């Protein structure tokens, strides 16, 4: 039984196929994304809300170990309990966000919702830029920071760290939650927030372990204000990410490049925060240069990008003409809010080899279900039993689907070409069974 457009947009990926279980991130993309999230979690330790917790955490762990008289080994156990509590809280948030991805996927079709999300992120970024201040009630902060003894105390500290640090890390986590929800993968939500928790908790863990050898911590100062503003620019970038689907090509990527350019100039040269260590000016300039390089890459890569696949709108006439010409057909079911859909369009379908194969040997059809309500597209969703987007259907020269080639996730250009080559071969007998 087919699903209407609103149901198809429930998730960017559905576990209908093994390839879909990989989620929108896998391979090297997954590795680099997790490394970036881990680094972001570590960077959150440098924000003003987290920094005061460092000496408190170190003294707490040291006191727990001293009570037990077991020294370093017990201190390690307390630190692991602390990180476990932090990971449980954040990972649960990631899983919940991903499980609500169906609702989020449908909601993200609405431009008004996208603008509201972007406005919230910009509002939180403004708080990190010191235009206004976000504070928790004093009683809630004190309750969360209350000391408890034993291993449960360390676990509880980890569980409640997010509450104490919410004024600084809350905006960042909100943006990450929205991103995870839009992908709709529970296991990916767990992995992402578990990695964030490791990055957030690992520095505190090592500070606690070596608390006896720690002579002094860097003094707080202007460098923490600078780190706050780094996080503010991260939120600005996330806001632009959510409204990209509303922007025409190539403006969507150019705007992101402009954000990187503005961030680099501000963080590297215009921001006047000072610190009491000599490497700080070099650090600021280095971050500024990296942002400028990223801006140049984003802008030039999109402006100079070669033409992509030439898509045709779906019609029975086009399908019939393809059969007369003995050309196989590739149908891309697509939505602008779908992350892997955009990745396919921007990477795979702009690859020179893929474009060459498509122009020479195939009829390429795109069915855009972003908005929904199109009777023709709704019938196609039922006809081909489309469970979610992206879904790419491969029809042989007889107009019958090769179910063994159906794609429901991002695929790199080389592997996509392999499917194109396979489609050009004589279809197996089984491929015609049960076709629409």
Task: Describe, in plain words, how this protein is organized in 3D.
With 436 residues, this protein is mostly helical. It has two domains: 17-221, no CATH class; 312-432, Glutaredoxin (3-Layer(aba) Sandwich). It is 62% helix and 4% strand. It is built from 18 helices and four strands. Strands 1-3-2-4 form a four-stranded mixed β-sheet, sandwiched between helices. Helix 4 crosses helix 9. The termini are close together. Residues 1-24, 212-216 and 429-436 have low confidence and may be disordered.
Question: Notable features of this structure?
Answer:
436 residues; mainly alpha; Glutaredoxin; 2 domains; 4-stranded mixed β-sheet; 18 helices; 62% helix; elongated; disordered N terminus; disordered C terminus
Q: SSE layout and pairings?
A:
Layout: H1 5-8, H2 27-43, H3 53-68, H4 71-99, H5 101-107, H6 111-128, H7 138-144, H8 150-164, H9 166-183, H10 186-209, H11 222-243, H12 251-270, H13 279-303, E1 312-313, H14 316-324, E2 329-334, H15 339-346, H16 352-361, E3 363-368, H17 375-383, E4 391-395, H18 413-424
Parallel strand pairs: 1-3, 2-3
Antiparallel strand pairs: 2-4
């Amino acid at each position: 039984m087919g699903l209407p457009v609103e149901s198809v947009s429930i998730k960017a990926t559905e576990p209908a196929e093994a390839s879909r279980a990989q989620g929108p991130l896998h391979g090297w993309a997954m590795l680099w994304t997790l490394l970036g999230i881990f680094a972001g979690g570590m960077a959150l330790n440098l924000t003003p809300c987290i920094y005061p917790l460092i000496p408190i955490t170190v003294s707490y762990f040291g006191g727990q170990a001293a009570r037990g008289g077991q020294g370093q080994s017990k201190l390690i156990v307390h630190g692991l309990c602390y990180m476990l509590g932090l990971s449980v809280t954040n990972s649960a948030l990631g899983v919940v966000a991903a499980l609500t991805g169906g609702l989020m996927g449908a909601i993200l079709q609405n431009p008004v919702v996208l603008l509201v999300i972007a406005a919230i992120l910009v509002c939180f970024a403004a708080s990190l830029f010191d235009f206004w201040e976000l504070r928790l009630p004093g009683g809630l902060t004190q309750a969360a920071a209350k000391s408890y003894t034993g291993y449960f105390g360390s676990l509880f500290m980890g569980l409640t760290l997010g509450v104490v640090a919410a004024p600084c890390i809350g905006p960042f986590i909100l943006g990450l939650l929205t991103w995870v929800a839009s992908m709709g993968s529970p296991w990916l939500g767990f992995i992402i927030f578990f990695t964030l928790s490791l990055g957030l908790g690992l520095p505190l863990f090592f500070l606690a372990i070596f608390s006896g050898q720690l002579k002094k911590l860097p003094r707080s100062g202007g460098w923490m204000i600078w780190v706050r503003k780094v996080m503010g620019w991260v939120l600005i970038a996330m806001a632009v990410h959510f409204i990209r689907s509303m922007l025409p090509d190539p403006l969507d990527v150019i705007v992101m490049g402009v954000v990187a350019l503005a961030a680099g100039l501000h963080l590297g040269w215009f921001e006047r925060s000072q610190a009491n260590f000599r490497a700080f000016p070099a650090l600021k300039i280095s971050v500024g240069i990296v942002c400028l390089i990223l801006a140049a890459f984003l802008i030039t890569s999109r402006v100079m990008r070669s033409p992509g696949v030439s898509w045709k709108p779906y019609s029975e006439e086009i399908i019939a003409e393809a059969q007369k010409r003995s050309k196989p057909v590739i149908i891309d079911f697509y939505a602008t809010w779908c992350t892997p859909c955009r990745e396919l369009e921007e990477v795979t379908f702009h690859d020179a080899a893929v474009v060459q194969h498509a122009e020479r040997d195939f009829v390429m059809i795109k069915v855009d279900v972003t908005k929904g309500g199109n009777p023709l597209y709704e019938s196609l969703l039922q006809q081909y039993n489309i469970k979610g987007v992206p879904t790419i259907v491969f029809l042989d020269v007889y107009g019958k689907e090769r179910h063994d080639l159906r794609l429901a996730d991002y695929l790199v250009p080389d592997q996509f070409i392999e499917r194109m080559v396979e489609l050009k071969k004589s279809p197996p007998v089984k491929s015609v069974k049960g076709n629409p």
